């Protein structure tokens, strides 16, 4: 299908298009690990850096405003906005994303954590192993049998628990379930993506890895100890599991959107987290079906049109929406083609009366990201290099008169 490039050009014609180097300050200057410890509660592939959220929230919002993120993922926007004392509306269609966003924005205090862990451990110890569902053979590859047994008992206690305590403990356990160090409950896996069982089996043999018993309660406590002393969020946050084309939020309730939609099938969130979904007892294939994972430009475009209609409905009349989305290389027979979802979104948003105020081109080379490289392995290695660098684009959209942008010196440049 042919692309209507004139609509893209029109939508961008009045925008200020700048690179990060033009900004007085940018998130690029922040130290690599900058950010509240709560951001590291559990991994979420494809999230943007906390410093980026902090920078944009400081420049464009004040504590009176309500911030919306309909693709909340690991909760970067929600947590950063709440730490800055903004109220937040956050949603994602993926259950694990909602567990994480909810846990990070409603963390337990030390006393609450101690009481919750004690109660859940006691209940888990009392679960009769004979009543548990059969051992999952793929999951078993990752753990010592006694750790696995404990995990199954904790799961039996926590799986129906939707309380704040339960959600927080689930997120902490997901955060230490598997990964590349002693902190994790699994054998030392290569990374925190859930690799396939066969891959992990080979990796285990190749590196002669032994399963070691790791008591769940001790590792959970070690993880929690890292949060002690961290600032806790103060803004109120509502987190809902919902499709972004049908948001459960009232009309005219948000002042600002900071979000990042799925990048046209760059990532399969349900697959990258399969072991966490196993432990959370979520249905991976149902989750996969609910995620927008299209690589077809026209399907993505109509999805984003519906999303923008929802943003327009939930936003007040004077508001901004910032959408972070990178260029995408589509692989197909006959070679690769780069598409620019940001331009498409700009054109669609202008149909709803949004004006493109600014586009910040973030020269972080998307091709160099680990997950992009993993994704590329699935394609023809003979494919010629098209020489085009994929970059992230930050679209600043505005409707009505949302007030000026405020130049604030970020914390990391003090
Ligand atoms: C690029 S990620 C967002 C990452 C987030 N900014 C962060 O820092 O963690 C895109 C998110 O869109 C979610 N998603 C995919 N399809 C969706 C849909 N139809 N409705 C709502 N969320 C969806 C995915 O679960 C994923 O969390």
TrEMBL record:
For this protein, the record's PROSITE patterns field holds:
N4_MTASE
Q: Which GO biological process categories is it annotated with? A: DNA restriction-modification system; methylation
Q: Which residues form the DNA methylase N-4/N-6 domain?
A: 33-90, 255-360
Q: Kindly indicate whether the keyword Ubl conjugation belongs to this entry.
A: no
Top enzyme class of this protein?
transferase
Q: Give the SUPFAM superfamilies listed for this entry.
A: S-adenosyl-L-methionine-dependent methyltransferases
E.C. no: 2.1.1.113
Fetch the InterPro entries from UniProt.
DNA_methylase_N4/N6, MeTrfase_CN4_CS, SAM-dependent_MTases_sf
Source superkingdom: Archaea
Q: Which reaction does it catalyse?
A: a 2'-deoxycytidine in DNA + S-adenosyl-L-methionine = an N(4)-methyl-2'-deoxycytidine in DNA + S-adenosyl-L-homocysteine + H(+)
- For the keyword Transmembrane, the answer is no
Q: Name one GO molecular function term.
A: site-specific DNA-methyltransferase (cytosine-N4-specific) activity
Which terms are listed as keywords in the entry? DNA-binding, Methyltransferase, Restriction system, S-adenosyl-L-methionine, Transferase
The record's family statement is: Belongs to the N(4)/N(6)-methyltransferase family. N(4) subfamily.
Write down what this protein is called: site-specific DNA-methyltransferase (cytosine-N(4)-specific)
